[in-house]
Amino acid sequence: MSKEFLAPDGQLRCGWAGSAPEFLAYHDHEWGYPVADDKRLFEKICLESFQSGLSWRTILAKRENFRAAFAGFDWSQVARFGPQDVDRLLQDAGIIRHRGKIEAVINNARRAEDMVAEEGSLAAFFWSYEPGPDEQVPPQTASITPQSIALSKELKKRSWKFVGPTTCFAFMQAMGLVNDHATDCICRKKAAQARAAFTSPAVRQAG
Question: At the top level of its lineage, which domain of life is listed (predicted)?
Fold first, then answer.
């Protein structure tokens, strides 16, 4: 697939944004813009873990179902889920019925509680892995980076599950920790402007 495609409005977008009808709005309004909201960050790392071995189109189509099933990704509620909830979710045809991934979300909700207690917020932790200006890779040339490897390693050290380096890099792309829009994509400049106006939560906390 080419790095860009010509969208119906006559503007170039990342090539993947043209591979499914529902991708264009997600690409234009969500993907690659910096996010500091803890609930959105937790939701995304969970959805990326569900995507492992599957397509993002599958997950995006079921996103509202996932939100309903997992209490809007309020980790304080999900952390209280028990065996009966796992059984319930395994019967929910609206989500991906994979026991390991379901149990990983519950586990990660508990780990998120620990992280907020230790780090102040999920955002402060995740944004501490933002690559520096001299650590950026050319757009859409990598599926893992040293930062995603380091993030994965630290999450696993903290007992998070289904958070491999590829999953972590996809999370970093989507949540704007890197601007991975293709060079000629109309959204690359928009994402860069959003990042320029954004103060990293890790920096705010350090200050």
Answer: Bacteria
Among 31, 33, 43, 48, the active-site one is 48
48 tagged catalytic:
yes
| Residue 26 is a catalytic residue | yes
Coil vs helix vs strand at 43: helix
Dihedral sign computed on CA atoms, order 45, 160, 109, 99: positive
pTM over 0.90: yes
> Shortest CA distance to 34 belongs to which of 197, 189, 182?
197
Which one is catalytic: 16, 26, 113, 119? 26
> By three-state DSSP, how is residue 112 classified?
helix
If we measure between CA atoms, which residue out of 200, 109, 111 comes closest to residue 155? 111
Catalytic residue among 31, 56, 127, 129: 56
Query: Taking the CB of residue 29, how many other CB atoms lie within 10 A of it?
Result: 10
* Position 1 confidence tier, pLDDT thresholds 50, 70, 90: very low
Residues 6+ apart with CB under 8 A from 70: 46, 78, 105
Q: Quick check: helix, strand or coil at residue 200?
A: coil
